Request: fold
Amino acid sequence: MKNSFKKHILAFVVCALLVLISYRFIDKPVVFFARAHHFRRYMFLYKRQQVLEHFVLLVPFAFSYYGYRFYRKLTTFFDKFIFLSAVSLLTAFVIKHPLKFIFGRYWPATFHGNNVSLLHGGVYGFNFFTGGFKCQSFPSGHALEVVSVATILWFYYPRWRWFAVLMSLMVSISLIVWYYHFLSDVIAGAFFGYLNGITVMKLNQKLSNRLSRSCKQKN
Reply:
């Protein structure tokens, strides 16, 4: 337990340092470079990060599927993976909004309602506890969601860890080169996604242990 806590603290410190370095030295040059080289002409990169939006729509079906299997006492290891992935994706979708409100960072570019941004208005930085679309760049919601699911995949199917990493990298790179997000947004989103996936698995384990003890006591 103590070792796990120390690892998470260390991960937080590393993430914070990477975000700080990226914010100070890397974020703006990467955005200017991506725009100068017209990376948005590569549509296949855009499609990669858009896939997540469709996966969120599958969450109710995943819950229905698992509920049916659980009711019929047919659940398997794969069913549990599907359920936890759906929970992780849903919680990621929910928590990204308050996180964006807390940090209130301006976007790299303008996407909706002529929002001010680095490329259209020259604004750069954080405007903490600010609502509205104009200040929702940090952390990246897409990175948070994909890493949340990738974390479940990483622990449940070790042989598919390469795919978990590839999936996360493809979405993250797409977000950066299309300058939907700064590099530091993606780093933070990935970190929060990892924490979210770990938390979902730990809470599930605690609940399973309690149910197991309860069943033993009744018997």
About this structure: The radius of gyration is 19 Å. Residues 2-218 form one domain.
